[in-house]
Amino acid sequence: MIESYTRRPDRIAVYTGLDFFGSDLDSARTADLVGCAALCLERGEGCRAFTFNADERVVRGPNCFLKSDSRSADGNAVAMSGVMLRRSDPDPAPIVVGAIDPKLGLLKDTDLPGADLTGRPHAKATTAQACRLACVADDTCQAFTWIKDRKQCWLKAAAVNSRFVPGLTSGIKTTMRYVPIKIIPLDR
């Protein structure tokens, strides 16, 4: 009985502009961040984190994503995320990630020629979003270019030059530091 009590979270670290991607346990539609946190608490020990999409233009489908972990992080101006903290967990250190914001960090109709990480397009990235996330997840990637017509994702070691090319989308990774805006104690 004591073991299960000490495993329950007793506080939540809340971040703005941070998206925990992948590791989804479930998704749902909620009114706000508080509702999303409540779903994670209801889920129990398996839910270690969550991301709430606060974009008011998204009126259908899930906007709350429950996570089994928070290891894969990216910047996203419309995201608010929380990490469940147990009594024994220290307050979280800042999260520093190489991020490409999907709203603010994309360069439409832009090519970043050269500096390809490999001589072939990324095999698993089949959309611009998947290409962006492949770059975010790869520590050696500093930028990407998505060729829509060919459905090709090119991960880049650098972004030295850019040029206007219709139908291409690129993004450049920037180092972002996220500190919780609040650590909310849970009354249990």
From TrEMBL:
UniProt keywords (A-Z) are:
Disulfide bond, Repeat
Which InterPro entries is this protein grouped with?
Apple, Pan_app
- Indicate whether Calcium appears among the record's keywords: no
A GO BP term here is: proteolysis
Please, which domain of life does this record's source organism belong to?
A: Bacteria
Apple domain ranges (all copies) = 6-90
- Family matches, as CDD domains: APPLE_Factor_XI_like
Q: Name one GO cellular component term.
A: extracellular region
What protein name does the entry list? PAN domain protein
* Organism of derivation: Methylobrevis pamukkalensis
